[in-house]
Amino acid sequence: MTPGPLLLEARHVTQRFRLPNGQVIEALRDVSLNVCEQEVVALVGPSGCGKSTLLRLFAGLARPADGSVLYRGRPLKGVLGAAAMVFQSFALLPWFTVSENVAMGLEARGVNGAARRDAVARAINLVGLDGFEQAYPKELSGGMKQRVGFARALAVAPEILLMDEPFGALDPLTAENLRSQVVDLWRDASTGVNTLVVVTHSVEEAVFLAGRIVVFGSHPGHVREELVNPLPYPRQERSPEFDGMVDRLHAILTATLLPEPAPAAPQRLIPFPRVHVSEVTGLLDHLLSRPDGKGHVFELAEDLGVDYDRMSAVVRGAEQLGWVTTPGEVVQLTLVGREVMAMDDSARKDATRARLKKHPLFGRVMAMLVESEGSMEDEEVLADLTIYFPFIPADSLFQTIVEWGRYAEVLDHDATAGRLMLTGAVEGAPDVPAG
Amino acid sequence: MKPLRLPPALTPPAIRRLGLADVAILCLLGGAIAAVVAFAREFEAPLRQVVQIDLRPSALPRYTLYSLARGVIALAISYVFALGFGWAAAKSRAAERLLLPMLDILQSIPVLGFLPGLVLGLMSLFPTRNVGLELAAILMIFTAQAWNLALSFYNSLKSLPDPLRDACKVAGWRASRTFWQLEVPAAAQGLVWNGMLSMAGGWFFLMVNEAFRLGDRDFRLPGVGSYMSVALDQGNGPAMALAILAMVAMIVCVDQLLWRPLVVWVEKFRLDETAGGGGGEAPATSWVLEFLRHARLPRRAALLRRQAYRTALRAARPLERPLAIARPVIMRGPRFALAHPVARWVGGSLLVAGVALAAAVGAWHIWLLLRQLGARDWGTLIGSAALTFARVMGAVIVSTAWALPAGIVIGRSPLLARLLQPVIQVVASFPAPMLFPLVVLLFERAGVGLGLGAVALMVLAGQWYILFNVISAVAAIPQQLKDAATAFQLPWRARWRSLYLPAAFPALITGWITAAGGAWNGSIVAEYLEAGGRLRTTAGLGSLISDATAHANFPLLAGGIALMSLMVVGWNRFVWRALADWAQTRFGFAQ
Q1: What is the complex's ipTM, to 2 decimals?
Q2: Which of A87, A109, A156 sits opposite B166 (nearest CB)?
Q3: In which band, very low, low, confident or very high, does the pLDDT at B445 lie, cut at 50, 70 and 90?
Q4: Where in chain A is the domain with CATH 1.10.10.10?
């Protein structure tokens, strides 16, 4: 199907949130995106890239801080009546039966009496839930609950179906089954749904569903790249064309997730990803078991059973410590990484300590601590982190620093007193001067 | 072949023969109507300066019903208040900043001190009727019930998952529909459980509310509380026993007929679908609810209600068009006020200014009263405050000494907890002050004066909160932790030290806060009471307040109340709160 006239439009949209601790996070910055009739658009990217935020803006559930959202050329006021939404957590009212949940949106659209009963029955029939009309959500499996979610959306015969990770909470088998049904529903003219916008974590899902895939980058959220997916429907997974498309999208995502480090500014402060020590050693362990100690990010993610978002964070952590390199989309264990893995526990801690002292961020924290005689209030460190990384929640970065510092026995943290301190082992100044 | 039986939800609401259940419901309905009528007549009765309380046993059921009616009316008002208050605090940040501290203070100060002012004020509004007195009693019960309900509704509004809200918005629900079909059901569990607590709390001052002396005037309302107080005055032992019995019977009936069914019914509105308490918990049951579910009348009533609703809609149809035209015009003002930033700012400022003005006027009046107190009065006030403070702490320590181990033993065993929890709930609902005179007489026989005896009375007033909190905390310990303790063969002493006590600690502090509040409240009736036809007092802030009330010494009363409020709120803020925060981070299970 060829895209029709312009339906939804985000113009230079910026959105901010205030965290409970007062820090203001920019979820989206200057994002522009068009959605046309008859299109299926997938929004992909790492978590925290604002893709769900954009979906909520399209639904009219929130107003952008700057910029505007337009529906058929008119600025959106309030909730977009032409759209229906499907949620990752289903968002069914537990005290409503399946029928009542499905009927939720009909009354406000002026559908009453017999027409409403018909619409509910039709929607329930479309998703194959006949016989469950009087059941309560708690009696249903996750897959059936999401069918109710779809039925509720379809009942209002929306022009646009907005889906926020609709298959994210389902097991893989159920997800696959529902996914192909969604494509069928979209291609079936009688449902009235002709435009889909789906937020997803899964590359395969995006390639399977979407005609256009929008890749987001994070901190703050922005559109990195758009990719047109010309494969004809219905799409065959595991076909060479499909796999080719998946690989292309993987390549784009990898470039987004693992940007080549800018060589010009080696001392530039970079945030350390929120990863645990055991995750990084787990990755190195796995790489050791592979031929040549290397592998594709997405293969690694699949082998280790984590999503690519998490995987790439672990890879970035290992890379910052110099234990892996990432030429292109491939993760390669370095010589240092091999050496570290061969060490016993205490030698490994020593090696980590040496690496952390050279790391710009850890080095800076340690230098600050040395300057204030080995101990600082948490608040001071958090304030400093907020200045340098305004787009990242400072709390989680702080916790990562504490965990790695404790592991390497350079830092200690007194949670009761709220103080971060150097352990006795590192009285000497770190190798990186305070900037 | 067996006949096919449809599940209850699918059976058409056909009306067959009336069953026994329906007869029972009709009788209950008739009884309720009769009680309301009798109560209304009582309401209208011209004020008799001293109501004659009839001590014959045959009068007691009527009195008990009067008391119950006051409690229920107060609870209904409390629910209305809680919904409005909680909603406002959850929806507007400005309101939140004002209302939450207010709630915090209101729920911890001894409201009994406001009774004299309230009674006199309302009496002057309705000089010839009992209405003023009734209203004062109901308002006093209300002040013991409303705050935790409001807080519970606020909390559940705040913790409502965002996707559910979004789903309602996308469905195009109006705010009123979201309120009744999302927000209230989601809060139902908390509202019912807290309603149970509130009802129990409302009985606490029953005797004082119904029989209360101000100067030489004796204000009395017919009720089980005033029955008890007259029986005490006359030293009529059988009548006292009967009053206590009637009270217990009422509490058990309310528990079985109202709260049990409600608790089971609101299970339907649980938001998280995993069964609470880490599984293995038998679902609560209620024979009354089973009975009702089998009865046909309620179903017929639902049908009738739906028909009535439709008829009303049809009747209102001619009005629809003018309303549809008028509504946007009428709503324009409020809409503008809410949407326009300048209008919102002005409205907010006006609200803040109004509150500030009211606070200033209040402060000025208190100041006028307090100015009349001399240095000696203040000396007495501070001395008695220190004494009562010592008693409150003593009561908390004594309560902890028995309730902590008992709570751990009960909470450890699911069987024991299930068996005892309902019993303890009923016992805890019993208004402790009704027992005070008997306890005091007992103590006197043993040679203990009221100075120490008051501590025991305050224990009676506060101990249950500690027991409840400890039981529920210990019952909530993850099974795996208990398994680990067993697997590593921890001796029982180590098991208590390393598992049960730390796990119970955060809840213990919550219990302390409430128990201390109960003890402070209790001091007003514990340090100054009539037993065996004789007035007994001991020095303390509570007796000072009671004495000032009895002698209509308003400056001293105001000073006493202000001092007590200040001490309770200050201690809560600076000691309990800090302790609770520390305990939560140190011993909480939440990671």
Answers
A1: 0.75
A2: A87
A3: confident
A4: 277-342
